[in-house]
Amino acid sequence: MEYRSVRISLRSSGSRLLLIFLDRFNFPIDSHSILCYDVIVHVNDNMANISRQVTISQVAKEAGVSAQTVSRVINNRQEITPETRQRVQDVIKRLGYQPNAIARSLIQRRSHILGVVTSGLEYYGPSHILIGVEQGANQAGLSILLNLIHQPETTDIGSIVNGLVSRQVEGIIWAVPEIDNNRSWFRENLPQLSIPVIFLSTQPRENLNVVEIDNRYGAFLATQHLLEKGYRKIGLIAGPLTWWAASERRRGWQDALMEAKIPFGEDWIVEGNWSAESGERGLHALLQKFPDLQAVFACNDQMALGLMRAARSLGKRIPEDLAVVGFDDIPESAFYQPPLTTIRQGLYELGQVAVQTFMKLRQIDQRDESVTAAQTVMLQPQLVVREST
């Protein structure tokens, strides 16, 4: 048995557990003032072992390596042999060693925190990109500090960026869709930022680090598929065209029709807002302007769901009377009636690649190398053919 002297201090509104402890051992309790007592506490050997914090030196001694080697394993450095890495990891697990994140940050002068700014988590795309970011950050040993913007079209974003910088984030993933002029703050202030910013859902530009899905090519694939099926009168239910991604999908639809030398007009287009309800309204509006419509490319799967419901209410069979292609490949699209032909985006991959891009930029910074040009990574979508075409 071991004896330890512990000084306990609490107010009368403090821990109920400590009050019970003091009462049990007949210590007088003053209900109006701070209590300070020197208490002899009996701690058995097992409890002492549990409460004693395992150090990196203990791990190194147990594994038969240096503390530097343990540090390299913890930081996932590549110069460690697989056998040594496994032996150190086994000791870490057995001893229950937990690295001191604060001390680690002070030594390395890094917070290991990545700021993430996003919006529209009620939509499939942004929510799944965020999951990919979180998974990528976890694999890289980073924590994320999340900031949600409820009005993504806002141009007043300086306070958000400055707030993240003041919290010592090492970089920012800006996953808010590009809408109208909501990137204007960055045009003036990005060169002065001391940390990298990786933009998603953004038109590639000089001096911007961008990771994006090739929306234009995805829309081209969707429309080309309908053309190959023999359809010529192909309408479009677009997303909100102030969004860069939605305008890119419109361009891809237009590219395919122009390549096939099919004339089209504005009466072939209806603008939705990404919701199933807008897809339902959109089909009715399209048919009023374009009654001999043969097929529709809906710029996301939720709008495709709405237009398929509208088609059934009008007595139109899919695909016999009206073919439909969506965009996203949400899990439910395979269970639509009929199952939906759509464009698959690698949304999880997009989030993970954004983190990987940040890590590459951080490594360049560690080597004191200058970045000669901003990086643009464009992920390619895929056509998934089902029964709606």
Structure at a glance:
The protein has helices at residues 16-24, 45-51, 56-63, 67-74, 82-95, 101-108, 124-139, 158-166, 184-189, 215-228, 244-259, 276-289, 301-313, 347-366, and strands spanning 2-10, 35-43, 113-118, 143-148, 171-174, 197-199, 209-213, 234-238, 269-271, 295-298, 323-325, 342-344, 376-379, 382-384. The chain is α/β, with parallel strands linked by helices.
Question: How would you characterize this protein structure?
Answer:
- The protein contains 14 helices and 14 strands.
- The strands form 4 sheets. It has a 6-stranded parallel beta sheet with strand order 4-3-5-6-7-13, with helices on both faces.
- With 389 residues, the chain is of the alpha/beta class.
Write the layout of secondary structure elements.
Blueprint: E1 2-10, H1 16-24, E2 35-43, H2 45-51, H3 56-63, H4 67-74, H5 82-95, H6 101-108, E3 113-118, H7 124-139, E4 143-148, H8 158-166, E5 171-174, H9 184-189, E6 197-199, E7 209-213, H10 215-228, E8 234-238, H11 244-259, E9 269-271, H12 276-289, E10 295-298, H13 301-313, E11 323-325, E12 342-344, H14 347-366, E13 376-379, E14 382-384
Parallel strand pairs: 3-4, 3-5, 5-6, 6-7, 7-13, 8-9, 8-10, 10-11
Antiparallel strand pairs: 1-2, 12-14
